[in-house]
Write a structure and sequence with these properties.
With about 625 residues, this protein is of the alpha/beta class. The protein is built from 23 helices and ten strands. The chain folds into two domains: about 350 residues, ABC transporter transmembrane region fold, CATH 1.20.1560.10; about 240 residues, Rossmann fold, CATH 3.40.50.300. Helix 2 packs parallel to helix 6. The radius of gyration is 38 Å and the shape is elongated. The chain starts with 7 loop residues before the first helix and ends with a helix.
Length: about 625
């Protein structure tokens, strides 16, 4: 259970829930174990009363429980040497009182069991809430490279299925384990008070039970880990195919992927059935061994009674009740062991994730004002996951309020520059400075708050258009949202929808065209009025007329702000103060638009080609 040690801090946090729950478990167990004593007293009293009537002797003394009720004034039962009818009436009344007392004990036991479940199950739900929040916070803190290494379905499985299995350990498994421990203690004490010898014989099958449980639980643990891994693989596959359903349909690959899913599902079914078969061994094994203990209790108890060793019918019945009282707790050992093993496998997966250290951290705190002066000095960068060198010794200085244009072939490193400026990654070598400070010395949250970024891969949330535009700040006014939509030239399109700004978008904005998604993303960036604006090929899906209109609006917005425009289109960047031309991660040309045209190099050729295409 080494992986589950991580949860001990939560037990300490909710220690009062645990302590109070433990107190209620003790009370519940005490009343449960005390109840069979009434059976013993009732059987002995009835047997002695019958003998007294038959042999015409003095009636037996009252059971201890009835004498206790007399002492506290709840009853006033008297045993006298009256006629047989009076004795029979007294006997029936005593048995009635014992039955009432027995029922009261079970009612009290039920009340304390209710409070036990309320305290311990609520504790498990609170820990589940805290654990999910911690996992989600870790999602936010981890760097972009982590999400490139892990599938979305697997990450979703850890915060849902894995946490649910851990909660079953925190609640039911802990509750039944504590209940079992106290029940065994109380029952063994009660059994030994009747007969130590018979108790030892009755418990002979238990070592076999313990060894069997250990062996089977080890198998369950191994199989549980494999089941969880396969479940994550299935979740990732379903999530990916659902997201790419349009591609599947376009290429008519539904049947092929259905067959693949069926094969993977069959593999999961084989694993889960194998696990269930192992778990199924517990109940028959426990019932058999507890049944063997019952046989020992009846047989050896009868021998003791025949031998006249102070053992009577009531003791045998009480002993049998105690042995059978252990049936469910020992049966629950299998179930609890299964819960613990599944939780161990799930917590191991959660710990692997929680132990991940964010690669991008803030080493300095503060809310220093960022004006937007950006300097790249000999910057080189290699993607850690693929080993591909994206940038080689990049140098430029972008002054505050100026606009930098970046163009080049696909894969030349344009988007990588944007990712480094927003510090999604750290440089491999060289340095980036913001306002003269090394970017690692700028508070990360402050850095990103000062930026408005329109990424190449536009992502819109399954929410209203209004909330997507105002994503950066919930306090933005309706006027600001409308103005941002107009500046991004999306306002007229929005007004054509029946719900206008309240229109709910499908997953990733599936009910919008590519150009509409890009323009909503632009509105989301400019509404922040940030010091640094980054547009990463964000106009590729709009026509040149719309592009020109948006750029004219952006020229007004970008005044006094540091701006970076990345695009394949020369028309998008030609107004920039400085332009970089990249190829294979290197700057092959730079300068103003006119300077690059005059050089008659790569930029000039690209511009002429695009003019002809236009």
């Amino acid at each position: 259970m080494k992986e589950l040690k991580y949860l001990n801090k939560y037990f300490f946090k909710y220690k009062w829930h645990l302590i109070i729950g433990l107190f209620f478990i003790v009370l519940t167990t005490y009343f449960k174990v005390y109840a069979p004593t009434l059976f013993n007293e009732g059987v002995d009293y009835i047997e002695n009363s019958l003998d007294a009537v038959k042999n015409d002797t003095s009636p037996p003394s009252l059971p201890e429980s009835i004498r206790w009720l007399n002492d506290i004034g709840l009853t006033s039962v008297e045993q006298t040497n009256s006629d047989k009818q009076e004795q029979a009436k007294t006997t029936r009344y005593v048995i009635f009182l014992l039955a009432i007392l027995f029922a009261v004990l079970f009612i009290i036991q039920g009340i304390f069991l209710f409070f036990t479940r309320v305290t311990l199950i609520i504790m498990s739900r609170r820990i589940e809430y805290d654990l999910k929040n911690q996992i989600y916070q870790q999602y936010q803190d981890l760097s972009l490279s982590f999400f490139k290494r892990n599938n979305t379905g697997d990450l979703m499985n850890r915060i849902s299925e894995d946490v649910s299995k851990v909660r079953m350990y925190l609640g039911p498994a802990v509750m039944y384990t504590l209940s079992l421990a106290f029940l065994i203690g109380f029952v063994l004490y009660a059994m030994c008070s009747i007969s130590v010898k018979l108790t030892l014989y009755t418990l002979l099958p238990l070592p076999i039970l313990s060894i069997s449980i250990y062996y089977v639980s080890t198998l369950i643990n191994k199989k549980s880990e494999r089941v969880q891994e396969k479940q994550s693989e299935l979740s990732s596959f379903v999530q990916e195919t659902t997201s790419g359903i349009r591609v599947l349909k376009a290429y008519n690959r539904e049947n092929a992927y259905m067959n693949f899913f069926r094969n993977e599902s069959d593999s999961y079914k084989t694993l889960i059935l194998s696990l269930i078969k192992i778990e199924a061994l517990f109940m028959p094994l426990i019932i058999m061994l507890v049944g063997l203990s019952t046989v020992f209790a009846i047989y050896l108890g009868s021998l003791e009674a025949i031998a006249g060793n102070g053992f009577d019918k009531g003791d045998i019945i009480q002993f049998i009740i105690y042995v059978n009282m252990l049936t469910w707790p020992f049966a629950s050992v299998g179930w609890v062991t299964s819960l613990v093993n599944k939780a161990e496998a799930s917590q191991k997966r959660i710990n692997e994730f929680l132990n991940e250290e964010p690669e991008i951290k803030s080493t300095h705190s503060g809310d220093e004002k960022i004006t937007g002066n950006i300097t790249f000095k000999d910057v080189s960068f290699t993607y850690p996951d693929t080993g591909i060198e994206a940038l080689k010794r990049i140098n430029f200085n972008l002054e505050t309020g100026k606009t930098l244009g970046i163009t080049g072939k696909t894969g030349s490193g344009k988007s990588t520059i944007a990712n480094l400026i927003s510090r999604q990654y750290d440089v491999t070598s060289g340095s980036i400075k913001i306002d003269g400070r090394t970017i690692q010395n700028v508070h990360l949250e402050n850095l990103r708050n000062s930026m408005g970024t329109v990424p190449q891969d536009v992502f819109l949330f399954s929410d209203s258009i209004r909330n997507n535009i105002s994503f950066s700040d919930e306090l933005l006014t309706e006027e600001q949202i409308v103005e941002a939509a107009k500046q991004a030239d999306i306002y007229d399109n929005i007004m054509e929808f029946s719900e206008k700004f309240d229109t709910i978008l499908g997953e990733r904005g599936i009910n919008l065209s590519g150009g509409q998604k890009q323009r909503i993303s632009i509105a989301r960036a400019i509404i922040k009025s940030p010091e640094i604006l980054i547009f990463d090929d964000c106009l590729s899906s709009v026509d040149t007329e719309t592009e020109d209109k948006i750029l004219r609006n952006l020229n007004q917005i970008m005044k006094g702000k540091t701006s970076i425009i990345i695009s394949h289109r020369i028309s998008t960047i030609l107004r920039a103060d400085h332009i970089l031309v990249l190829n294979k991660g290197e700057i092959i040309e730079q300068g103003s638009h006119q300077d690059l045209i005059d050089k008659k190099g790569y930029y000039h050729d690209l511009y002429q080609k695009q003019l002809v295409e236009g």
